[in-house]
Amino acid sequence: MWQAYFTPVTIQQALALLAEHRDAARIIAGGTDLMLEMERGVRRPRVLIDITRIPDLDCIRLDGQNRLHLGPLVTHNQVVASELCRQHALPLAIACWMVGSPQIRNRGTVAGNLITASPANDTITPLWALDGQVTLQSMRRIRSLPLSEFFQGARKTVLQDDEMLVDISFRAMSPEQRGTFMKLGLRMAQAIAVVNVAVVVTFAQEATNAEKGGLVCDARITLGSVGPTIIRAYKAEQALIGRALTDEVIYQAGEQAAAEAQPIDDIRGSAAYRRRMVAVYTRRALEQIRAGHERDALPSRPVMLWGKTDGHFPIWSSLPAAYPADGPLVHSADGEQAIETEVNGKMYRVKGGYDKSLLRFLREELRLIGTKEGCAEGECGACTVLLDGIAVMSCLVPAPRAHGSRIVTIEGLGDANALHPVQQAFSETGAVQCGYCTPGFIMSGAALLAEKAKPTREDIRHAFTGNLCRCTGYYSIIHAIERAAELSR
Fold first, then answer.
1. What does the pLDDT average to over 438-456?
2. Handedness of CA 373, 467, 123, 155 (dihedral sign)
3. Which domains does the chain show, CATH number per domain?
4. I want to staple 305 with a disulfide (CB 3.0 to 4.6 A). Which of 58, 242, 447, 458 is the partner?
């Protein structure tokens, strides 16, 4: 799919590569959007620049001006797990929780969500409500822009082809503020928003409890998937300022937000339906804030499928020989660098396959065919593997990302003497029907049990939001994980 794959180890190396290759190159981090675009032929970059080996780009920090900063490698699940984000940016944390599935959230970055620039992307709406801005860097300059200037329309930004997004920042919410995020999709998970709404309300300092009739002194209402970019509902905000959140005030704000939306008809919904849902979801968000229930949307201990890790991919996890000496690694047809990786405890050194997905690399180069290709779009989960202990969709990971990493597939989950408890439980409970989806379910289940020894049924459901089965109705699969937890204990 690409001709050359560079792995820089500093930002300056990445910027130099961008300056050299310009519009022929794309930066790849999580790759959950870009890999799909390349699979569909929407983008055809000749050069990929993988920034995931650059240290300290997955940090979340609070500065002295009370602004939160996200590095360009911060994933959606890292935001969900961050106490800083949960306390000071709850609308963003809720939005990240609603993105895709655990495997997608483990690789997909907030920065990538912004750069893709779809008005339906979930994280843009809350960041807009929190006065978000981005910092862009090239060999020529560094510039910071508010999101209102960064986005130019549907899937259009001001990012130049030699620039890299190096920071996202936004206002940390104060004790006087409450906020939430709501999304309407066509299914419970893995859904693109028909409508999404972010609301941040500031109450007068002497009356911070909305349930006690606190007056609103400021409000931010932002709407996604109802215009070419995010819409800020200024008139709806004005309908709240100086007033308490009574039923009448909330109703008026919802109707005004609907009037400010600019939806279109498409496959997910008509313009009229979207406009009506803007009113409904704006009202629901305000009612949730008034009742103080906004934190109910985010589990206290969410399922991540991180296994025993902390959710941060190591810079290099194995094979000292794989470390770059002085410059960026280059995997290409005319280069000498092989992909050196550990898969199921065995070391491999492969010269080919650099231009494939990790899924196809495993199946075609290593002949490990247990990992299945069901959709090649990150929708079905049949290709789930563990990358450095974290569950990912291998169809959305470029093969060279395996260089210097440890991977576990379904073939390596058990050992020569015994099946893994999840494999044993699938056999005992009859959770296997046609079997095509089974490797992905087992890998997700194994990651869940490594993370939570006693998962609840709700935990199991969350763990499997990225895995689809066309045969069983899921009941036996859920029972298998409950049985596997017993076997593990």
1. 97
2. positive
3. 63-297 (3.30.390.50), 320-488 (3.10.20.30)
4. 447
Q: At what angle do helices 421-429 and 475-488 cross, to 10 degrees?
A: 130
Cβ atoms within 10 Å of 332's Cβ, excluding its own: 16
- Tokens linked to 116: 């893709």
Q: What is the pLDDT of residue 326?
A: 75
What is the C-alpha separation between 205 and 176, in angstroms, rounded? Answer: 6
Which region holds residue 290: left if phi is over 0, alpha if psi is between -120 and 50, else beta?
Answer: alpha
Beta strand 164-171 with 133-137 is: antiparallel
The CA distance from 112 to 120, in Å, is: 14
pLDDT for the residue 335: 80
Q: What is the model's pTM? A: 0.97
Burial 338-374 (b: 16+ CB within 10 A, else e): bbbbbbbeeebebeebbbbbbbbbbbebbebebbbbb
C-alpha to C-alpha distance for 475 and 374, rounded to whole angstroms = 21
CA distance 395 to 384: 8
